[in-house]
Design a protein that fits this description.
The complex is a heterodimer of chains A (about 350) and B (about 240).
Chain A: H1 7-25, H2 28-53, H3 61-79, H4 85-109, H5 115-133, E1 141-142, E2 145-146, E3 160-161, E4 164-165, H6 168-190, H7 193-203, H8 205-209, H9 215-241, H10 251-264, H11 269-285, H12 292-308, H13 313-325, H14 338-341
Antiparallel strand pairs in A: 1-2, 3-4
Chain B: E1 6-17, E2 20-31, E3 35-39, H1 46-54, E4 61-66, E5 69-70, H2 76-82, E6 84-87, H3 99-107, H4 116-126, H5 142-155, E7 160-164, H6 172-187, E8 191-196, H7 199-205, E9 208-213, E10 216-222, H8 223-228, H9 230-237
Parallel strand pairs in B: 3-8, 3-9, 6-7, 7-8
Antiparallel strand pairs in B: 1-2, 1-4, 4-5, 9-10
Helix pairs in contact in B: 3-4, 3-5, 4-5
The chains are: A mainly alpha (about 350), B alpha/beta (about 240).
GO molecular function (chain B): ATP binding; ATP hydrolysis activity
Protein name (chain B): ABC transporter ATP-binding protein
Keywords (chain B): ATP-binding, Nucleotide-binding, Transport
């Protein structure tokens, strides 16, 4: 598939070029900050995939984020063998995906959809936060690892491939390369056979069933893929800070990705990526005077976005750019790729 | 009617919504190759029967057989794979996608990847809407949306095509074109069961007709027999 020349793709290329040269331009602290932002981008992309592409509205990405983060911590600390950390990462992502599949299976085959998925996943997130918060004490040991209640788990080992420990720039580039791979996959997926079925499900679930598609299966599959991406985010977060606490399951963790994706443009992965990085950068910049300001501004941006640009701020800018520079006037959700490349 | 020739059979099918008997103890047989009409006033249970044939509603009692196979408990998508396809009463097209994209969604599931484009072109040609392939579906007329939806139903390669009011909201010219299309599809070997309450349209097309009234089968026979059935005339055609 040829890459189409449009505003979004040009911006995406520029963003990734910028990310690749960023460590040359700034100090190590800023690089690790961006590594953190990029880790959180996976969470936004997971929501972009399930909500933006497939129409499944979920507050539950924090569940998979937290579970896999905790799994990686428990697995690697118990094994004590640092060369097994990549296995911890792979298993953590798989476990997140499998749990999402099981949850999705019961919801979608049980006919649960729309706002009820949001409610169930939000409840699950909060239940897990409460549960993990009370795990202080020796009775909450898994192997040699104490779950640690509100204090969570500290000193979680960094990723080690062979004898090479990924910290600093190497960790940053590792996250960036995986992000690039995931990003390219999602761009490809959007126009794949399954991706087109997924868009059909988002637009009209009942009709899609009547075209012979096993809708609950596809929904469960996409939900599992979203769970795996959120898990990747959780494990990168753990690798970045070497700790995890129950706040990973908290209300903020559950809602911020939803707001970021909605305000940036939920049907557009580049918009989700860009808006997430901008938000976390902004949040960090304001952190000296209290990061709550960032949340207030994010709230205002969301209100403005919903009122005036329901397709998202960044996605609308892309669309305006296309009209201005590429004379692209199609309003098709698949952006008129249909006739030529679909 | 030999047993092998029966493509669709409803046996004592009923659908109750609480105390309301929307469909009650219906027995219908549709022969392979038939062009069969379900006729009846609003609220007779016609669309409910279609939804039970497709698996959108589960019958409260009775069974649905397709090709001698009991499909009562099959999901909608499995019934589509067996060869039942539907155009619903209100167009279920994807309004924010182009005509081509709509057709692609339908076609890609039943056609090999390399043949998707040619199959979409063939169907759009058949429906005479090929010129509209890059048009957003929301911009199409009601009639064009109905044809597109028939095209999407055909993409599932059906043996039995259910058409719920295929000519609803169409002008005389579009209605004639739709009738011609349905006749053509039937001649190609697709069994068609359609709902309508425009008697003139039914007369143009149907070979066999089942009349429903208040959820029950009221009469059945050829169009000529139905037309001359005094009870049908009284309750349905509004003649005194």
């Amino acid at each position: 598939m040829l890459v189409k020349l449009n505003t979004e793709n040009i911006v995406a290329v520029l963003i990734f070029l910028f990310f690749f040269v960023y460590p040359v331009l700034v100090d190590a602290y800023s690089v690790m900050n961006l590594a953190y932002f990029l880790s959180m981008v996976f969470l936004s992309l997971s929501l972009s995939l399930i909500w933006g592409y497939c129409g499944i509205f979920s507050f539950g990405q924090a569940v998979f984020f937290g579970i896999s983060g905790y799994f990686y911590a428990v697995f690697t600390l118990n094994s004590g063998i640092t060369t097994l950390t990549p296995l911890g990462l792979i298993l953590g992502v798989l476990i997140g995906g499998v749990i999402a599949w099981i949850l999705g299976y019961f919801m979608f085959y049980g006919g649960v959809n729309d706002v009820f998925v949001g409610l169930i996943t939000l409840c699950l997130t909060l239940v897990l936060e409460t549960f993990m918060g009370q795990t202080a004490g020796d009775q909450w040991m898994i192997g040699q690892v104490n779950l640690g209640g509100f204090n969570g788990i500290n000193s979680i080992p960094s990723l080690q491939i062979g004898s090479f420990i990924l910290t600093g720039n190497s960790f940053y580039y590792f996250v960036l390369l995986i992000l690039l791979a995931v990003f390219i996959f999602l761009k490809w997926f959007e126009f794949s056979k399954l991706g087109i079925a997924v868009v059909a499900i988002r637009e009209n679930r009942e009709r899609t069933k009547l075209l012979g598609y096993n809708v609950p299966f596809i929904q469960s599959l996409v939900f599992a893929m979203g769970g795996a991406l959120a898990s990747l985010s959780g494990i990168f977060y753990v690798l970045w800070g070497n700790y995890i606490t129950p706040s990973a399951f908290g209300l903020a963790s559950a809602t911020i990705p939803v707001v970021l994706v909605a305000a940036g443009g939920r049907k557009n992965v580049t918009a989700a990526l860009l808006f997430t990085v901008l938000y976390y950068w902004f949040s960090q910049t304001l952190s000296a005077s209290g990061s709550e300001y960032a949340l207030i501004i994010l709230g205002l941006v969301l209100i403005v976005a919903i009122l005036f640009v329901p397709n998202g701020l960044i996605a609308s800018l892309f669309h305006a750019g296309d009209q201005l520079f590429f004379r692209e006037h199609s309003k098709s959700l698949l952006r008129k790729k249909g006739a030529k490349t679909l | 009617m030999s047993k092998e020739a029966v493509l669709l059979e409803l046996r004592h099918v009923g659908k109750y919504f609480g105390g309301l008997r929307a469909v009650d103890d219906i027995n219908i047989k549709v022969e392979s190759g038939d062009l069969h009409c379900l006729l009846g006033p609003n609220g007779a249970g016609k669309s409910t029967i279609f939804k039970m044939i497709m698996g959108i509603y589960k019958p409260t009692n009775g069974s649905v057989f397709f090709n001698q196979r009991n499909v009562t408990h099959l999901k909608s998508w499995d019934r589509v794979k067996l060869g039942i396809s539907i155009k619903m009463q209100t167009p279920g097209v994807f309004g924010e996608l182009t005509v081509y994209e709509n057709m692609k969604i339908a076609v890609q599931h039943f056609t090999r990847h390399a043949e998707v484009k040619s199959e979409v072109s063939r169907l759009l040609e058949l429906l005479m809407i090929r010129d509209l392939k890059d048009e957003l579906v929301d911009n199409l007329s009601h009639g064009q949306q109905q044809w597109l939806e028939i095209g999407m139903a055909l993409a599932c390669k059906p043996k039995l095509l259910l058409l719920d009011e295929p000519a609803a909201g169409m002008g005389p010219e579009e209605t004639d074109r739709t009738a011609e299309l349905i006749r053509q599809l039937n001649q190609q070997g697709i069994t068609i069961l359609f709902i309508d309450h425009d008697m003139a349209f039914v007369k143009k097309l149907a070979r066999n007709t089942t009349v429903l009234h208040l959820g029950r089968k009221f009469a059945e026979g050829t169009v000529e027999e139905i037309e001359t059935n005094q009870q049908v005339v009284d309750i349905y055609l509004g003649k005194s």
